[in-house]
# Entry
Amino acid sequence: MATIYYTSSSLDGFIVDSAGSLDWLLSRDIDVDGPFGYKAFEQSVGALVMGSTTYQWLVENQPGDWPYPQPSWLLTSRPDVVVPGHPVQVTSGDVAQLHPTLVEAAGERDVWVLGGGEVAAQFVTAGLVDELVVSYAPCSLGAGAPVLPVHSEWRLL
# Structure
């Protein structure tokens, strides 16, 4: 079991462009069974956590039923943003206090820190991210939200 920040990035280190859009990524042909194995990764996840920006993006771009069968948490101070029927737990506060709940919900599987750099930064700063998996798209954006907006050290595998 690991806590994994799994994301995509432009070559210059942004996860969304300056307009908050993922069009730069979604316009590409992505092989979910390919080298970064999104499909296999998604099946290894037992619980996931995200921030309100990621949640809002999912609501706007993947309307309808909640797309994840795993227990899901939303870090926000605005519990009213959750769409009725979405099985999403709302929480706020220290991620170190939330983490044991995520681990327990995940069981033998992994915890996925999904989406943006701000939530990931909280988990990284608290020393809770075991793996950072970044798939790079062959483009540069020049500006946007960074993969991780905090200083951190990693070992390349």
About this structure: The helical segments are 23-26, 38-44, 52-61, 95-106, 117-125. Residues 74 and 131 are 20 Å apart (CA to CA).
